[in-house]
Amino acid sequence: MNNNNSILLIDPTFDPATASACNLLVKVGLDSFSYAILNKETNQVSAVFDEQECENGAQKFAERLKTDSYLTLPYQDVKVAVHTQNAIAVPNDLYNEDSLNAHTQFFTEAPVGDLYTQTQHHFGFTTVFSLPKTTNETLTSFTDGKKYSQHAGLLALAEKINETALLLDFSVGSFNALYIQNQQVVFQQCYEIDNQDEFNYYVLLMINQLDINTKETNLQLSGIIHEGDDKYNCLLKYFSKADFIAASNNLDKQILDDMPAHYYSSLLALDQCV
């Protein structure tokens, strides 16, 4: 990371003229913004940008669009996952695409702009969501891009896990939590954390309210967390062990060789979303 809490890793052989053979993956977090460029012909990660500790991830996305030429190349496919307070998971047997507006009564805020949906075939529900005003305006530049809610990458990673598991995906100042049991999503939430005491509080809150058996629950970690740091040690007070989720093994991730393998797992997993 540089002094601006951002990093750009790029393959020196990447040619912007090959963008039509590449996918752009964008993750707009509560306090972070990142993207990756994947060459679909070679399965190579050609570039990764990440900025942490943003005052507002959606605003940072808007700013980068004005200055970062890599974001506006003519890609084969664009997938954007966005943090939003306005999201609800509807079981597929209750979902009716003609009644989307009925679900907005459960949103935290009045929706602005379009409503979006993301079907989770594996877990049997459909997420209905709207985007924050800033992001909704910004995404006019991505009219052909696919929009997803913030947990999309984490849900894609969870599809490969067969046991009871708690997945935590970290930025510097927040984390997304996903709890699965019997191949069903029991809980998903995003928490903003200012200090270690707050993190400890939310961990205990999840354990107690969800009645998590910490001895039999598989704890899976991704994002900005390290073995032995304060968050990791806090988790080991309650769980017997913690495993890191590495990005898909079929990708050529040479540009990430000097980075922890779990840093960008949920970002790269967006490529698995349909």
UniProtKB/TrEMBL annotation:
<protein>
    <submittedName>
        <fullName>DUF3822 family protein</fullName>
    </submittedName>
</protein>
<dbReference type="InterPro" id="IPR024213">
    <property type="entry name" value="DUF3822"/>
</dbReference>
<dbReference type="Pfam" id="PF12864">
    <property type="entry name" value="DUF3822"/>
</dbReference>
